[in-house]
UniProtKB/TrEMBL annotation:
Organism: Bdellovibrio bacteriovorus
A Gene Ontology molecular function term of the record: ATP binding
EC number: 6.3.5.7
UniProt-annotated catalytic positions: K78, S153, S177
Identification of the protein by name: Glutamyl-tRNA(Gln) amidotransferase subunit A
One GO BP: translation
Superkingdom in the source lineage: Bacteria
Family the entry assigns: Belongs to the amidase family. GatA subfamily.
Catalytic activity: L-glutamyl-tRNA(Gln) + L-glutamine + ATP + H2O = L-glutaminyl-tRNA(Gln) + L-glutamate + ADP + phosphate + H(+)
InterPro entries with a match to the protein in the record: Amidase, Amidase_dom, AS_sf, GatA
Quaternary structure (record): Heterotrimer of A, B and C subunits.
Amidase domain ranges (all copies): 27-470
Length: 490
Protein backbone atom coordinates (compact mmCIF):
# COMPACT_ATOMS: atom_id res chain seq x y z
CA UNK A 1 0.00 0.00 0.00
CA UNK A 2 1.24 3.47 -0.88
CA UNK A 3 0.87 5.28 2.45
CA UNK A 4 1.46 8.60 0.73
CA UNK A 5 -1.78 8.17 -1.20
CA UNK A 6 -3.83 5.95 1.09
CA UNK A 7 -7.17 7.25 2.39
CA UNK A 8 -8.18 6.89 6.04
CA UNK A 9 -10.38 3.92 5.21
CA UNK A 10 -7.57 2.30 3.14
CA UNK A 11 -5.27 2.54 6.18
CA UNK A 12 -7.90 1.43 8.70
CA UNK A 13 -8.91 -1.54 6.54
CA UNK A 14 -5.32 -2.63 5.99
CA UNK A 15 -4.56 -2.32 9.70
CA UNK A 16 -7.73 -4.11 10.76
CA UNK A 17 -7.10 -6.97 8.31
CA UNK A 18 -3.45 -7.12 9.48
CA UNK A 19 -2.09 -6.41 5.99
CA UNK A 20 0.07 -3.84 7.78
CA UNK A 21 0.40 -3.11 11.48
CA UNK A 22 -0.63 0.18 13.08
CA UNK A 23 2.91 0.40 14.41
CA UNK A 24 4.38 0.14 10.90
CA UNK A 25 2.05 2.88 9.65
CA UNK A 26 2.96 5.21 12.50
CA UNK A 27 6.68 4.59 12.20
CA UNK A 28 6.52 5.29 8.47
CA UNK A 29 4.93 8.70 9.10
CA UNK A 30 7.17 9.47 12.08
CA UNK A 31 10.32 8.87 10.02
CA UNK A 32 8.99 10.95 7.18
CA UNK A 33 7.93 13.75 9.52
CA UNK A 34 11.29 13.80 11.28
CA UNK A 35 13.20 14.05 8.03
CA UNK A 36 11.01 16.60 6.18
CA UNK A 37 9.80 18.81 9.03
CA UNK A 38 13.01 20.87 9.37
CA UNK A 39 12.26 22.29 5.91
CA UNK A 40 8.77 23.55 6.78
CA UNK A 41 8.62 23.76 10.61
CA UNK A 42 5.04 22.48 10.77
CA UNK A 43 5.51 20.15 13.76
CA UNK A 44 6.20 21.60 17.19
CA UNK A 45 6.57 18.37 19.18
CA UNK A 46 6.32 14.63 18.69
CA UNK A 47 4.39 12.20 20.84
CA UNK A 48 7.01 9.87 22.34
CA UNK A 49 4.32 7.30 23.06
CA UNK A 50 2.91 7.15 19.52
CA UNK A 51 4.42 3.77 18.66
CA UNK A 52 3.33 2.25 21.97
CA UNK A 53 -0.19 3.56 21.36
CA UNK A 54 -0.14 2.09 17.85
CA UNK A 55 0.95 -1.26 19.32
CA UNK A 56 -2.11 -1.19 21.56
CA UNK A 57 -4.31 -0.96 18.48
CA UNK A 58 -2.47 -3.95 17.01
CA UNK A 59 -2.97 -5.90 20.25
CA UNK A 60 -6.68 -5.15 20.21
CA UNK A 61 -6.90 -6.41 16.63
CA UNK A 62 -4.96 -9.55 17.56
CA UNK A 63 -7.50 -10.17 20.33
CA UNK A 64 -10.32 -9.56 17.85
CA UNK A 65 -11.57 -6.59 19.85
CA UNK A 66 -13.32 -3.89 17.90
CA UNK A 67 -11.28 -0.93 16.70
CA UNK A 68 -12.74 2.18 15.14
CA UNK A 69 -13.00 3.53 11.58
CA UNK A 70 -9.65 5.34 11.97
CA UNK A 71 -7.74 2.32 13.29
CA UNK A 72 -4.02 3.11 13.08
CA UNK A 73 -4.45 6.41 11.17
CA UNK A 74 -1.69 8.87 12.26
CA UNK A 75 -2.87 12.39 13.07
CA UNK A 76 -1.23 15.70 13.86
CA UNK A 77 -3.10 18.09 16.14
CA UNK A 78 -2.96 21.88 16.16
CA UNK A 79 -1.46 23.35 19.33
CA UNK A 80 -4.88 24.82 20.29
CA UNK A 81 -6.21 21.38 21.29
CA UNK A 82 -5.48 20.01 24.74
CA UNK A 83 -3.75 16.65 24.47
CA UNK A 84 -3.20 14.60 27.59
CA UNK A 85 0.51 14.49 28.46
CA UNK A 86 1.54 16.46 25.35
CA UNK A 87 2.56 20.10 25.37
CA UNK A 88 -0.26 22.43 24.34
CA UNK A 89 1.25 25.87 23.95
CA UNK A 90 -1.18 27.75 21.66
CA UNK A 91 2.17 28.83 20.14
CA UNK A 92 2.51 31.33 23.00
CA UNK A 93 5.23 31.95 25.56
CA UNK A 94 2.31 32.28 27.97
CA UNK A 95 1.63 28.52 27.74
CA UNK A 96 5.11 27.36 26.72
CA UNK A 97 5.22 24.69 29.43
CA UNK A 98 1.55 23.72 29.63
CA UNK A 99 0.93 19.97 29.60
CA UNK A 100 -2.81 19.28 29.90
CA UNK A 101 -4.07 16.45 32.09
CA UNK A 102 -6.87 15.64 29.62
CA UNK A 103 -7.73 15.47 25.91
CA UNK A 104 -10.04 17.87 24.09
CA UNK A 105 -13.26 16.06 23.16
CA UNK A 106 -12.36 16.15 19.44
CA UNK A 107 -8.99 14.51 20.17
CA UNK A 108 -10.55 11.96 22.51
CA UNK A 109 -13.03 11.00 19.80
CA UNK A 110 -10.26 10.61 17.22
CA UNK A 111 -8.38 8.34 19.60
CA UNK A 112 -11.51 6.34 20.41
CA UNK A 113 -11.90 5.78 16.68
CA UNK A 114 -8.39 4.29 16.62
CA UNK A 115 -6.37 7.27 15.41
CA UNK A 116 -2.81 7.73 16.69
CA UNK A 117 -1.65 11.21 17.70
CA UNK A 118 1.87 11.59 16.27
CA UNK A 119 2.53 15.16 17.31
CA UNK A 120 1.42 18.74 17.71
CA UNK A 121 1.28 21.31 14.94
CA UNK A 122 2.41 24.90 14.62
CA UNK A 123 -0.01 27.83 14.37
CA UNK A 124 -0.31 31.55 14.96
CA UNK A 125 -0.26 32.49 18.66
CA UNK A 126 -3.71 31.84 20.16
CA UNK A 127 -4.91 31.31 16.55
CA UNK A 128 -4.60 35.02 15.80
CA UNK A 129 -3.19 35.50 12.34
CA UNK A 130 -3.45 34.55 8.70
CA UNK A 131 0.13 33.60 7.89
CA UNK A 132 1.59 31.52 10.73
CA UNK A 133 4.22 34.20 11.27
CA UNK A 134 3.07 34.96 14.87
CA UNK A 135 4.34 31.86 16.61
CA UNK A 136 6.50 30.99 19.58
CA UNK A 137 7.80 28.13 17.43
CA UNK A 138 8.76 30.27 14.43
CA UNK A 139 7.41 30.72 10.93
CA UNK A 140 5.92 27.77 9.02
CA UNK A 141 6.90 27.47 5.37
CA UNK A 142 4.58 26.61 2.52
CA UNK A 143 5.63 23.21 1.08
CA UNK A 144 4.81 24.41 -2.47
CA UNK A 145 7.22 27.34 -2.17
CA UNK A 146 9.18 27.66 1.05
CA UNK A 147 9.54 31.42 0.60
CA UNK A 148 5.74 31.73 0.99
CA UNK A 149 3.51 31.54 4.06
CA UNK A 150 1.29 28.46 4.51
CA UNK A 151 -1.62 30.67 5.64
CA UNK A 152 -2.95 30.76 9.16
CA UNK A 153 -3.73 30.30 11.79
CA UNK A 154 -3.69 26.51 11.20
CA UNK A 155 -0.59 26.84 9.00
CA UNK A 156 1.21 23.90 10.62
CA UNK A 157 -1.77 21.62 9.99
CA UNK A 158 -2.09 22.58 6.32
CA UNK A 159 1.67 22.43 5.65
CA UNK A 160 2.06 19.08 7.43
CA UNK A 161 -0.85 17.66 5.47
CA UNK A 162 0.32 19.01 2.10
CA UNK A 163 3.70 17.33 2.50
CA UNK A 164 1.99 14.32 4.02
CA UNK A 165 3.93 14.30 7.30
CA UNK A 166 0.70 13.01 8.84
CA UNK A 167 -2.18 11.05 7.33
CA UNK A 168 -4.58 13.62 8.77
CA UNK A 169 -4.65 16.80 10.87
CA UNK A 170 -7.03 18.86 12.98
CA UNK A 171 -7.30 22.63 12.87
CA UNK A 172 -9.52 25.34 14.28
CA UNK A 173 -11.36 28.08 12.42
CA UNK A 174 -12.56 31.29 14.05
CA UNK A 175 -12.47 33.49 10.96
CA UNK A 176 -10.95 31.29 8.26
CA UNK A 177 -8.08 29.49 9.95
CA UNK A 178 -8.95 26.09 8.47
CA UNK A 179 -10.07 27.19 5.01
CA UNK A 180 -7.43 29.79 4.18
CA UNK A 181 -4.36 27.63 4.97
CA UNK A 182 -6.04 24.71 3.18
CA UNK A 183 -6.37 26.97 0.12
CA UNK A 184 -2.74 28.16 0.36
CA UNK A 185 -1.39 24.61 0.75
CA UNK A 186 -3.64 22.67 -1.66
CA UNK A 187 -5.47 20.48 0.86
CA UNK A 188 -9.08 20.02 1.95
CA UNK A 189 -10.22 21.99 5.02
CA UNK A 190 -13.69 21.87 6.55
CA UNK A 191 -15.16 24.18 9.18
CA UNK A 192 -18.45 22.61 10.26
CA UNK A 193 -21.62 24.37 11.42
CA UNK A 194 -21.14 26.16 14.75
CA UNK A 195 -22.17 23.60 17.38
CA UNK A 196 -21.25 20.48 15.39
CA UNK A 197 -17.90 19.90 17.09
CA UNK A 198 -17.29 20.29 20.80
CA UNK A 199 -15.00 23.13 21.84
CA UNK A 200 -14.27 21.40 25.14
CA UNK A 201 -10.51 21.31 25.67
CA UNK A 202 -9.77 23.69 22.81
CA UNK A 203 -8.05 26.85 23.99
CA UNK A 204 -10.66 29.58 23.61
CA UNK A 205 -10.04 32.46 21.22
CA UNK A 206 -13.50 33.84 20.34
CA UNK A 207 -16.03 31.42 21.76
CA UNK A 208 -19.01 32.40 19.60
CA UNK A 209 -16.97 31.83 16.43
CA UNK A 210 -14.48 29.01 17.21
CA UNK A 211 -15.02 25.63 15.54
CA UNK A 212 -12.70 22.69 14.98
CA UNK A 213 -12.43 20.63 11.83
CA UNK A 214 -10.20 18.44 9.66
CA UNK A 215 -7.45 19.55 7.29
CA UNK A 216 -6.83 16.46 5.18
CA UNK A 217 -5.97 15.16 1.72
CA UNK A 218 -9.42 14.40 0.32
CA UNK A 219 -13.12 15.18 0.68
CA UNK A 220 -13.75 11.56 1.64
CA UNK A 221 -11.22 11.75 4.49
CA UNK A 222 -12.74 15.06 5.57
CA UNK A 223 -16.23 13.54 5.70
CA UNK A 224 -15.10 10.52 7.72
CA UNK A 225 -12.97 12.39 10.25
CA UNK A 226 -15.61 15.08 10.70
CA UNK A 227 -18.16 12.35 11.40
CA UNK A 228 -15.88 10.98 14.12
CA UNK A 229 -15.32 14.26 15.95
CA UNK A 230 -18.85 15.74 15.59
CA UNK A 231 -21.84 15.46 17.86
CA UNK A 232 -23.27 16.51 21.20
CA UNK A 233 -20.92 16.78 24.14
CA UNK A 234 -22.17 17.37 27.66
CA UNK A 235 -19.01 19.37 28.33
CA UNK A 236 -19.87 22.00 25.73
CA UNK A 237 -23.33 23.54 26.11
CA UNK A 238 -23.16 25.01 22.59
CA UNK A 239 -22.90 21.62 20.88
CA UNK A 240 -25.98 20.59 18.94
CA UNK A 241 -28.14 17.60 19.87
CA UNK A 242 -28.70 16.94 16.14
CA UNK A 243 -27.72 13.47 14.97
CA UNK A 244 -24.50 13.35 12.93
CA UNK A 245 -25.24 11.95 9.45
CA UNK A 246 -22.96 9.32 7.89
CA UNK A 247 -21.50 11.94 5.55
CA UNK A 248 -18.73 9.69 4.25
CA UNK A 249 -21.16 6.94 3.24
CA UNK A 250 -23.57 9.35 1.59
CA UNK A 251 -20.99 11.25 -0.42
CA UNK A 252 -22.28 11.78 -3.93
CA UNK A 253 -20.62 13.82 -6.66
CA UNK A 254 -23.85 14.12 -8.66
CA UNK A 255 -24.76 17.81 -8.69
CA UNK A 256 -27.53 17.55 -11.27
CA UNK A 257 -30.33 19.97 -10.43
CA UNK A 258 -28.43 21.50 -7.53
CA UNK A 259 -28.48 25.27 -7.29
CA UNK A 260 -25.05 26.75 -6.73
CA UNK A 261 -25.07 30.39 -5.63
CA UNK A 262 -22.29 32.61 -6.87
CA UNK A 263 -21.69 35.25 -4.25
CA UNK A 264 -21.92 38.66 -5.91
CA UNK A 265 -19.83 40.38 -3.21
CA UNK A 266 -16.86 38.12 -3.94
CA UNK A 267 -16.61 38.93 -7.61
CA UNK A 268 -15.23 42.41 -7.25
CA UNK A 269 -12.14 43.63 -9.08
CA UNK A 270 -10.02 42.79 -6.02
CA UNK A 271 -9.47 39.17 -7.10
CA UNK A 272 -6.16 38.11 -8.53
CA UNK A 273 -6.46 36.86 -12.12
CA UNK A 274 -5.57 33.23 -11.33
CA UNK A 275 -8.10 33.05 -8.49
CA UNK A 276 -10.75 34.59 -10.75
CA UNK A 277 -9.99 32.01 -13.43
CA UNK A 278 -10.28 29.16 -10.92
CA UNK A 279 -13.68 30.41 -9.76
CA UNK A 280 -14.88 30.72 -13.38
CA UNK A 281 -13.62 27.24 -14.26
CA UNK A 282 -15.19 25.68 -11.19
CA UNK A 283 -18.55 27.20 -12.13
CA UNK A 284 -18.21 25.88 -15.68
CA UNK A 285 -17.53 22.40 -14.42
CA UNK A 286 -20.51 22.42 -12.10
CA UNK A 287 -22.71 23.79 -14.88
CA UNK A 288 -21.57 21.08 -17.28
CA UNK A 289 -22.37 18.49 -14.61
CA UNK A 290 -25.95 19.71 -14.45
CA UNK A 291 -25.92 22.26 -11.62
CA UNK A 292 -27.70 25.54 -12.04
CA UNK A 293 -25.66 28.65 -11.26
CA UNK A 294 -27.57 31.53 -9.68
CA UNK A 295 -26.22 34.84 -8.44
CA UNK A 296 -26.83 35.49 -4.74
CA UNK A 297 -26.11 38.51 -2.62
CA UNK A 298 -25.16 39.00 1.03
CA UNK A 299 -24.57 42.78 0.98
CA UNK A 300 -23.36 42.98 4.59
CA UNK A 301 -20.28 40.94 3.68
CA UNK A 302 -18.82 44.35 2.96
CA UNK A 303 -18.65 44.79 6.75
CA UNK A 304 -17.57 41.25 7.61
CA UNK A 305 -13.94 42.13 8.39
CA UNK A 306 -14.66 45.05 10.77
CA UNK A 307 -17.54 43.20 12.45
CA UNK A 308 -15.42 40.08 12.83
CA UNK A 309 -12.43 41.91 14.26
CA UNK A 310 -14.63 43.76 16.78
CA UNK A 311 -16.34 40.61 17.99
CA UNK A 312 -13.29 38.32 17.86
CA UNK A 313 -11.06 40.83 19.66
CA UNK A 314 -13.73 41.52 22.32
CA UNK A 315 -14.21 37.83 23.07
CA UNK A 316 -10.45 37.29 23.00
CA UNK A 317 -9.81 40.07 25.52
CA UNK A 318 -12.25 38.37 27.86
CA UNK A 319 -11.02 34.80 27.21
CA UNK A 320 -7.36 35.72 27.58
CA UNK A 321 -7.86 37.55 30.90
CA UNK A 322 -7.22 34.24 32.68
CA UNK A 323 -3.55 34.21 31.63
CA UNK A 324 -2.25 36.36 34.44
CA UNK A 325 0.61 34.36 35.93
CA UNK A 326 -1.50 33.49 38.98
CA UNK A 327 -4.34 31.36 37.70
CA UNK A 328 -2.57 30.30 34.54
CA UNK A 329 0.51 30.54 32.49
CA UNK A 330 3.86 32.23 32.34
CA UNK A 331 4.87 34.47 35.24
CA UNK A 332 7.50 37.21 34.95
CA UNK A 333 10.42 36.87 37.32
CA UNK A 334 10.65 39.37 40.16
CA UNK A 335 13.51 39.75 42.60
CA UNK A 336 11.24 40.56 45.51
CA UNK A 337 7.75 39.34 44.64
CA UNK A 338 6.10 40.54 47.84
CA UNK A 339 7.18 44.14 47.18
CA UNK A 340 5.71 44.26 43.64
CA UNK A 341 2.43 46.18 43.22
CA UNK A 342 -0.25 43.93 41.72
CA UNK A 343 -0.61 46.04 38.59
CA UNK A 344 3.10 45.80 37.87
CA UNK A 345 2.95 42.05 38.43
CA UNK A 346 0.19 41.65 35.85
CA UNK A 347 1.71 44.21 33.49
CA UNK A 348 5.13 42.53 33.40
CA UNK A 349 3.71 39.02 33.24
CA UNK A 350 1.26 39.68 30.44
CA UNK A 351 3.63 42.08 28.70
CA UNK A 352 6.30 39.39 28.46
CA UNK A 353 4.02 36.40 27.97
CA UNK A 354 1.97 37.58 24.96
CA UNK A 355 3.26 38.42 21.49
CA UNK A 356 2.58 41.70 19.67
CA UNK A 357 -0.47 40.59 17.67
CA UNK A 358 -2.17 39.07 20.72
CA UNK A 359 -1.58 42.28 22.66
CA UNK A 360 -3.04 44.30 19.80
CA UNK A 361 -6.22 42.18 19.92
CA UNK A 362 -6.50 42.39 23.73
CA UNK A 363 -6.22 46.17 23.63
CA UNK A 364 -8.69 46.48 20.76
CA UNK A 365 -11.15 44.14 22.46
CA UNK A 366 -10.86 45.77 25.87
CA UNK A 367 -11.53 49.13 24.25
CA UNK A 368 -14.64 47.81 22.44
CA UNK A 369 -16.01 46.36 25.67
CA UNK A 370 -15.32 49.41 27.84
CA UNK A 371 -18.25 51.43 29.10
CA UNK A 372 -19.07 54.27 26.79
CA UNK A 373 -17.87 52.32 23.72
CA UNK A 374 -19.64 49.00 24.28
CA UNK A 375 -22.88 50.06 22.60
CA UNK A 376 -21.18 51.89 19.77
CA UNK A 377 -18.90 48.98 18.88
CA UNK A 378 -19.71 45.63 20.45
CA UNK A 379 -23.50 45.94 20.44
CA UNK A 380 -23.48 47.44 16.95
CA UNK A 381 -21.28 44.64 15.62
CA UNK A 382 -23.69 42.10 17.12
CA UNK A 383 -26.61 43.78 15.37
CA UNK A 384 -24.85 43.70 12.01
CA UNK A 385 -24.00 40.04 12.65
CA UNK A 386 -27.69 39.24 13.22
CA UNK A 387 -28.65 40.97 9.97
CA UNK A 388 -25.92 39.08 8.13
CA UNK A 389 -27.46 35.79 9.28
CA UNK A 390 -30.80 36.95 7.88
CA UNK A 391 -29.23 37.89 4.56
CA UNK A 392 -27.62 34.46 4.31
CA UNK A 393 -31.00 32.84 5.04
CA UNK A 394 -32.49 34.89 2.20
CA UNK A 395 -29.65 33.78 -0.11
CA UNK A 396 -30.20 30.11 0.77
CA UNK A 397 -33.82 30.44 -0.39
CA UNK A 398 -32.52 30.58 -3.94
CA UNK A 399 -29.54 28.20 -3.75
CA UNK A 400 -28.31 25.03 -2.02
CA UNK A 401 -24.63 25.86 -1.70
CA UNK A 402 -22.70 29.12 -2.11
CA UNK A 403 -19.45 29.19 -4.08
CA UNK A 404 -16.77 31.84 -3.65
CA UNK A 405 -13.02 32.31 -3.57
CA UNK A 406 -11.32 31.61 -0.22
CA UNK A 407 -9.17 34.74 -0.40
CA UNK A 408 -8.27 37.24 -3.09
CA UNK A 409 -4.84 35.73 -3.79
CA UNK A 410 -2.63 32.68 -3.54
CA UNK A 411 -0.04 32.28 -0.76
CA UNK A 412 1.96 35.46 -0.26
CA UNK A 413 5.64 35.81 0.62
CA UNK A 414 6.89 35.44 4.17
CA UNK A 415 7.33 38.95 5.60
CA UNK A 416 5.16 40.63 2.96
CA UNK A 417 2.22 41.59 5.18
CA UNK A 418 3.39 41.05 8.73
CA UNK A 419 4.10 44.71 9.44
CA UNK A 420 0.75 45.86 8.01
CA UNK A 421 -2.04 44.43 10.20
CA UNK A 422 -4.80 45.86 8.01
CA UNK A 423 -3.45 44.16 4.89
CA UNK A 424 -3.27 40.94 6.92
CA UNK A 425 -6.86 41.30 8.21
CA UNK A 426 -8.21 41.98 4.72
CA UNK A 427 -7.02 38.54 3.81
CA UNK A 428 -10.03 37.25 5.80
CA UNK A 429 -12.56 39.11 3.70
CA UNK A 430 -14.31 36.01 2.27
CA UNK A 431 -14.01 33.66 5.23
CA UNK A 432 -15.13 35.61 8.31
CA UNK A 433 -18.81 35.97 7.35
CA UNK A 434 -19.21 32.16 7.46
CA UNK A 435 -18.13 32.14 11.12
CA UNK A 436 -20.22 35.19 11.98
CA UNK A 437 -23.27 33.40 10.57
CA UNK A 438 -22.32 30.02 12.13
CA UNK A 439 -22.46 28.31 8.72
CA UNK A 440 -20.41 25.33 7.53
CA UNK A 441 -17.68 26.17 5.03
CA UNK A 442 -14.88 24.34 3.27
CA UNK A 443 -11.97 24.87 0.94
CA UNK A 444 -11.32 22.29 -1.74
CA UNK A 445 -8.13 22.37 -3.88
CA UNK A 446 -8.98 23.09 -7.49
CA UNK A 447 -6.04 24.34 -9.56
CA UNK A 448 -2.56 25.84 -9.59
CA UNK A 449 -1.64 29.44 -10.34
CA UNK A 450 0.87 30.43 -13.03
CA UNK A 451 3.58 30.36 -10.32
CA UNK A 452 2.54 26.85 -9.32
CA UNK A 453 0.74 27.77 -6.08
CA UNK A 454 -2.50 26.01 -5.12
CA UNK A 455 -5.92 27.63 -5.40
CA UNK A 456 -8.88 26.36 -3.43
CA UNK A 457 -12.57 27.02 -3.94
CA UNK A 458 -14.73 27.91 -0.97
CA UNK A 459 -18.15 26.33 -0.51
CA UNK A 460 -20.63 27.41 2.15
CA UNK A 461 -23.90 25.67 3.01
CA UNK A 462 -26.84 26.36 5.27
CA UNK A 463 -26.68 25.35 8.94
CA UNK A 464 -26.19 21.59 9.41
CA UNK A 465 -26.18 20.95 5.65
CA UNK A 466 -22.58 19.72 5.54
CA UNK A 467 -23.62 16.85 3.27
CA UNK A 468 -24.51 18.99 0.27
CA UNK A 469 -21.39 21.08 0.74
CA UNK A 470 -19.21 17.95 0.84
CA UNK A 471 -20.98 16.56 -2.23
CA UNK A 472 -20.24 19.67 -4.30
CA UNK A 473 -16.71 19.57 -2.86
CA UNK A 474 -16.35 16.02 -4.16
CA UNK A 475 -17.52 17.06 -7.63
CA UNK A 476 -14.88 19.82 -7.69
CA UNK A 477 -12.20 17.52 -6.31
CA UNK A 478 -12.87 15.00 -9.06
CA UNK A 479 -12.41 17.74 -11.67
CA UNK A 480 -9.45 19.39 -9.94
CA UNK A 481 -6.20 19.86 -11.83
CA UNK A 482 -4.09 19.75 -8.62
CA UNK A 483 -5.23 16.27 -7.78
CA UNK A 484 -2.30 13.87 -7.60
CA UNK A 485 0.22 16.73 -7.79
CA UNK A 486 2.69 17.01 -4.94
CA UNK A 487 4.33 20.13 -3.49
CA UNK A 488 8.10 20.68 -3.65
CA UNK A 489 8.62 19.52 -0.09
CA UNK A 490 7.20 16.02 -0.35
N1 LIG B 1 -7.09 35.46 10.56
C1 LIG B 1 -8.17 35.54 11.47
C2 LIG B 1 -7.70 36.13 12.78
O1 LIG B 1 -6.56 36.42 12.88
C3 LIG B 1 -8.79 34.19 11.66
C4 LIG B 1 -8.09 33.35 12.63
C5 LIG B 1 -8.81 32.07 12.94
O2 LIG B 1 -9.71 31.64 12.25
N2 LIG B 1 -8.41 31.48 14.05
O3 LIG B 1 -8.43 36.32 13.69
Amino acid sequence: MDLLKASFSDIAEAVTSKAISAKEVSSFFLKRAQSLNPRINAITSFNDHALAEAEKIDEKIAKKESVGPLAGVPFGIKEMFCTKGLKTTAASKMLANFVPPYDATAVERLKNAGAIVLGKLNQDEFAMGSSNENSLHGVVRNPWDVTCVPGGSSGGSAAAQASRLMAGTLGTDTGGSIRQPAHFCGVVGVKPTYGRVSRFGIIAYASSLDQAGPIVSSVKDAALSLEVISGFDKNDGTTSQKAVPAWSKQLNENVKGLKVGLLKQCMSGALNADVQKAVDNSLDILKKSGAEIVEVSVPLIEYAVPVYYLIAASEASSNLARYDGVKYGYRAEFKNLSAIPLEDFYGETRGQGFGAEVKRRIMLGTYCLSSGYYDAYYTKAGQVRRLMVQQYQEAFKSCDVILSPVTTSTAFKIGERISDPLAMYLNDIFTTSTNLAGLPGMSVPFSLSAEGLPIGIQLTANHFDEQRMLNVGLALENASSVRGKNPNVF
